[in-house]
User: Fold these one by one.
Assistant:
Number 1:
Amino acid sequence: MLGPVLLAAARSDSIRRIVAATPVTRPVVDRFIAGERLAESMRVVRDLAARGREITLDYLGEDITDPAEALRNRDAYLLLTEALKTQDLGERAEMSVKLSAFGQALPGGHELALKNVTPVVEAAAEAGTTVTLDMEDHTTVDSTLAILAELRRSFPQTGAVLQSYLFRTEEDCHALAGEGSRVRLVKGAYNEPATVAYQDKREVDRAYVRCLKILMAGQGYPMIGSHDPRMVAIGQELAHRNGRKPAEFEFQMLYGIREAEQERLVAEGHRMRVYVPYGTDWYGYFMRRLAERPANLAFFLRSLATR
Ligand code: FDA
C-alpha cells in the first residue's frame, strides 16, 4: 500500500526538500547512487568492470522545468562519453538516458528531446559505446518509441526499455524483437492507472514472462532487467530453449541491489550489466527504489531510528 504513496512523494517538491535535509538520508542514498560527481562514479565503474560486470551509467537529471537544464544534462552526458573514451571503457560501459532530462516534458518536448539527445548518441557511437533510452511514465511511451525509431535509422544499436506492467507492452515487444534491436525488459517503476497497467503484481509477473518469451524467441538482443530470482531463472531457461549463447542476451540489475546474485551470474559466464546512477538529482530515483521494496524502506527507517 505504501508504494503508490512513495511514488506520489517522488514527484513532490516539498517532500523532496524534507528528505534531502534529513541528515541520515545521505548514507542510505549512497547505497543506491554511485556518487554526485563523474570522477566518483568512474571509480565505481572501474571497480565493477574489474569484477566482471558490464555497466550502464545514468546521469540523474529527470523532471526538468527549463530548456537550459536539458542542455546541461546533454553536456553532462557528453562529458561522460569523453570519460568512457579516454578511460577505454567504451566496450564495458554504456549509457542510459531519461528523455525527460532532455526536455521531453517541456512544450515542444518531443522535438526538443530528439534534438538534445542526438549529439549524445552520435558521440557514444564515436566512443564505441551505446545509449539505451529509459522508459518513464505511460504518457511518454509513444514519444520515446518514436524517438528510438528515429535514432535507430542512423544508430541501430540504440536500446529501448519496455515495462511489462503496461497492457500495450506485448505488442511493443513484437515490434521490437527484430534483428539489431536491444530491449531491456523491466516490470515498471511508475504509479500507473488501471486503465493502462496491471495493478496486481502477479499479473505484472505473468506479463513479464510473456514478454520475455517474445524477446527471447526474436532476433534482437534481450536485456533482462530484474532482481527477481524467478525472472532470472526463467530468463536462463528461455535462453537455453531458444539456443541463445551467453553473448546473445544479458541480465541487468541496479547498483547496490543483489550483489551476490550479480556475482553468481558472472561466475556462471553470463553478461551481467549494472545500472549505475550518479549526479546530484537523486531524489526521484531514490524514492522509486524505496517504493518498490519494503526492505529498502525499512533500511531507511531503521537508519532514522538508530540516530
Ligand atoms: P520485484 O520488485 O518485482 O521483486 C521481486 C522479487 O525480486 C522480490 O520478491 C525479491 O525476491 C527480489 N528482489 C527485488 N528487489 C530486491 C532487493 N532490493 N534485494 C533483494 N531481492 C530483491 N523501470 C522503469 O519503469 N523504467 C526503466 O527504464 C527502468 N530501468 C531499469 C533498469 C534496470 C537495470 C533495472 C534492474 C530496473 C529498471 N527499472 C526501470 C525498475 C523496474 O521497473 C522495477 O521497478 C524494479 O526492477 C523492481 O522489479 P524487479 O523485477 O527487480 O523485482
Number 2:
Amino acid sequence: SNIIAIVGRPNVGKSTLFNRLTESRKAIVDDFSGVTRDRHYGKAEWTDKEFTVIDTGGYVANSEDLFEAAIREQVVIAIEEASVIIFMVDVTTGITDLDDDIANLLRKSKKPVFVVVNKVDNTALETESSVFYSFGLGEIYTISSMTGSGTGDLLDEVVKHFEDIQEEENTLPKITIVGRPNVGKSSLINALIGKDRNIVTPIAGTTRDSIHIHYNQYGHEFMFIDTAGLRKKTKVKENIEFYSVMRTIKALEDSDVVMLMLDAEEGLESQDINIFHLAEKNKKGVVILVNKWDLIEKNDKTMKAFEEQIKQKLQPFTDVPILFISVLNKQRIFKAIETALEVQKNRSKKIPTSKLNDVLLPIIEAYPPPATKGKYIKIKYITQINGVAPMFAFFCNLPQYIKEPYKRFIENKLRENFDFSGVPIQIYFRQK
Ligand code: GDP
C-alpha cells in the first residue's frame, strides 16, 4: 500500500501525529517488531484511501552517540521506502542544526516531501512558522497534532500524491517467503528459480520494492513476491529492525500465501510468531518451513515433537502445514511449493450453502450454544460470505450471547469437515 513516513528529530511530535492518523485502525499491527513495546507502524485511511504510516523515530536507537547516524539512516530509509514523506519540525524551537541536516538529505529525494510545522496552537505561532520556508522544500503545512487542527488539510494534499495501486491483472497465486535473516530465504528462491533469474520482472509503481518472479515449471504456476534479492543492493545496514519489518509487511500484504521460514536450529521465536499473527490478521494463507533440517540429529520422533512444539506457540490457530526441509539437499522444496498452492486453493474455496448446512446443522443441534440468561440460542442457517478468504455467517436469534469458546468449537468443526489447512477463517454470528 501507499506509505507515509514521518521523519524528524526527537520530540517534534511525530508519534502524536502517528497516533492521530492510525487510532481508528489500531487492530492491524501491534507490537510487530517484537523488540519495542511501542507501535510505530499502522494503518490509516483518509477519504476512502487506505495507507500505511510509519513513525520512523520510534526505531532510532536511544544511545547519544548513535543519534545522528541513526536519524540519517531513518531519513535514507524513508526516502527509499515511502510514497510520501512528512518532515516534521517544531515551531516552538525554530530551525535546529539537526533539522537542517534532515532537510539537506530530503532535498536530494525524488519523493514528495511535506514540511509539517507542528505545535502551531495559535495565530501568533502561525506567523512564526514562515521561517521553515527557508528549507527550500516548498509549501509548509502548519498543524497541531495535539488538537488535530490542520491535519485534515495536510492529508487532503498528501493523498493526491499517492500512486494508484492497480489490481494486478493476473490472477496467479502470489507467494512470498518471509523469515529472519539467514534462515535460507534467498537460497530457496535460488534453488527454485536457478539460472532463470532473467524472468524476474520488477513491478512498477508502489511495489517497486519487491520483485515479482513468474514461476512456471513442473506444472506449477504462480508469482513469487521477493524482497530478498533487492535487500542486498542497498547500502543501508540490514540489521535495522524496521527496515526488514517494512519489507516483510509489504511482501506479506502483496501476497496470498506466506511461507514463514525458520532455522531448525533456532526454532520458532517471538519475531516469527509476530509475523505469523500478522499473516493471520491479514487473512493470508500460511505455510511454515523449518529449514536446515539436515543439521538436526534426529530419530523417528523428532519431527513430531518439533511440530508439536511449534503448534503450541501458534495457539489458537494451529491448523497450519509445517514442513521440514533442507534447501541445501533440495529436500522437500517442491513439496513446499505444492503445499503453498494447496493452501491458496483452500483460501479461495467456496462451500455451497446446502452442503454447509447439511454438515453443520446436525452438529449444532447435538451441541447447541449454551443457554444464556435463561434464553435458548438457536442457529438456523449458515452461509459463506464472498471474500478473498473464508468468511462464514451463522444466522441466529441471539448472536450477542455466543461466546468465544463456542465460536472456536464451530471453527474446529468447519476445519474438520472442510479442508482449510493454512487458512485463517472468519466467523460471524448475525441476527436474521
Ligand atoms: P536469508 O537471509 O534468509 O535469505 O538466508 P540465505 O539464503 O542467505 O542463507 C543463509 C545461510 O544459510 C547461507 O549460508 C546458506 O548457505 C545456509 N543455508 C540455507 N539453507 C540451508 C539448509 O537447508 N541447510 C544448511 N545446512 N544451510 C543452509
Number 3:
Amino acid sequence: MHTVTTRPIEGQKPGTSGLRKKTRVFMQPHYLENFVQSVFDSIGGAAGKTFVVGGDGRFFNDRAAQVILRMAAANGAAHVIVGQGALLSTPAASHLIRLNKTDGGLIMSASHNPGGEDEDFGIKFNGPNGGPAAEGLTDRIFARTKEIAEYKITDAQDIDLSRIGETALGDMKITVVDPVTDYAALMETLFDFDKIRAMIADGFRIRFDAMNAITGPYAIEIIENRLGAAEGSVVHGTPLPDFGGMHPDPNPTWAHELMDTMNGPDAPDFGAASDGDGDRNMIVGPNVYVSPSDSLAVLAANAHLAKGYTEGLAGVARSMPTSAAADRVAQKMGLPCYETPTGWKFFGNLMDDNRVTLCGEESFGTGSNHVREKDGVWAVLMWLNILAVRKMSVVEIMQDHWQTYGRNYYSRHDYEAIETDTANALVTDLRAKLPDLPGQTIQGRTIATADDYTYHDPVDGSVSEHQGIRVIFDDAARFVIRLSGTGTSGATLRLYLESLELDPANFDRDPQDALAGIIGAAEEIAGIKARTGRDGPDVTT
Ligand code: VG1
Ligand code: CO
C-alpha cells in the first residue's frame, strides 16, 4: 500500500446522477483516484467496510474497476462484491447493496450518454440503502475534491474478474458474482412469471432493444430463458465498450430502430428499450408510443395486479417536470402523491420512510421500492405482467387509462450543446421575469403561478433550491425549463410541456399539436429559439 500525493482537480462536482465527464478526462492521471478517495473520505473512511462495485461495461469500466479495488484495499475495506467482468446494471448494483447489507457501492456509468474513448464515462456512490448519495453527501464529496492532498492505493496486479468466486487483495476479500442471478431472483418474487410465460406461449411477441448496453444479459436470461420469448426477442444484447456506436438512450430518437419495427408491418405486440446502465425504459406497442409520464400513471393504476404489489401502494412520487398523470391516479385511488426535484436521489428518503412504493420520471425512469434506483427491466416486466392479467393490448390499456383519468398531453424538447453562457443568461433572465408573470394572458391562456421550484424534503427537512422554473396556467397547462445536470459538453436546456385534456373526443391527438399553444407561450416568454438561434429542439420525446 502506498500514499500518493495529489492536488485538487477542478470540476469534480457530481451532477444529477454522479460525476460524468469525457472518458479522456477520467483517464487523466489522478482524476479517478482523487474522486474515489474523496468518496471514501466523505463517508468516514472505507476501513472495515463492504462495498459493491460494477458498471455498465463502457470503455474504461474494466480499468476503473481495478483502480477502485486497489484503492478500497488500501483504504482498509473488508470486502468488495463485484459483478463478473466488472459488470452490473445500476438497479442490480442497488439490489446487491441492499441484499448483502453493505456500506454502499460504486457504480461506473454515464448512463444514457454514449460510451467510448471519445465519449463519456462516469462514477457515482450509492449508500447503504442502495440509493444514489443524497445532496448533502454529494456536496461533501465535492468539497473534499477541492482540498484533497493524497490518496491511498495498493500496488498489485489486476484481479481476475472473469471468474465467479472468492479472491482477495491483501486483507480485502473480493467476491465476484454473476451480475444477473440475484437480480433475476428478485424479479421472480415481484412478478407472475407463470402468467407472462403463458401469454408468450400463446403467441405474444416481444422485442427488447438492449442497445448494446448492460441490459442485454439481464433481458436474455429473464425474457428469453425464463419467460420463453423466442430467441432473438432481445436485440443488441451484448454489452460493448462503445455500445456499438449506438446512443443508448431509450427514446424515439435514439431507439429509432425499435420504433421502425414497432411502426412497421410485422410489429410484435410489445417493444421496449433500456439505456446504458439499465435503469431507464421505453415502452412501445404496435403504432403506439407510451409517454414515460403516462407509463408511471398506468403502473400506479395497475401495480396491484402483480404479485409483489397485491397489497396496494403506500404512495406515488414523481419528479416535478413529470406530468401530473400519476397524480390523477393517486387522487382517484386515495394515495399520497409526492413531487420531487429531478434525479432519483430525491426518492430515496420517501421510499425508506415507507411513504411511497412507486416512483417515476418523465425521462424514461420508473421504479419501485424493491431497489433504490429506477429500473428498466423491472418496468418492462411490470408492463408484461399487467398485459398478461388484463389481456389487453398496449393501445387498449392506454385508451382505457385516458377514458378513466383524462389525458395529460406531454412532451419534452431538448436543446443540446448550446453555449453555456447563452443557457445561463436565458435562465437568469427568465427567473427575473417570474414575479410579473402571474395574471398575464399569453396566447389565450392566463398564467396562474410562476416560480423557481424549491423542494422541502418531508423526511429529513433538507431544502433544495433552483430545481427548475415552472410557469403554470389556470387551465393546469404548464411548462418547465431547467438545465441538464448530466451532460458533458456545453449546456442542454430542457423544456417540459404539459396540458390536461378531459374531453374523450380529443384523446387521440398528436401531442405536438395538442401542445402547440403551450409551446408558443413558452417561446414567447422564454425565447429559447430566438436566443439560441436554433430552429427547434434536437430531441423531442
Ligand atoms: C437526466 C434526467 C433525469 C434523470 C437523470 C439520470 O437528468 O432528466 O430525470 O434522473 O438524467 O438518469 P438531467 O439533469 O440531464 O435532466 V440516468 O439513466 O442518465 O442515470
Ligand atoms: Co441510466
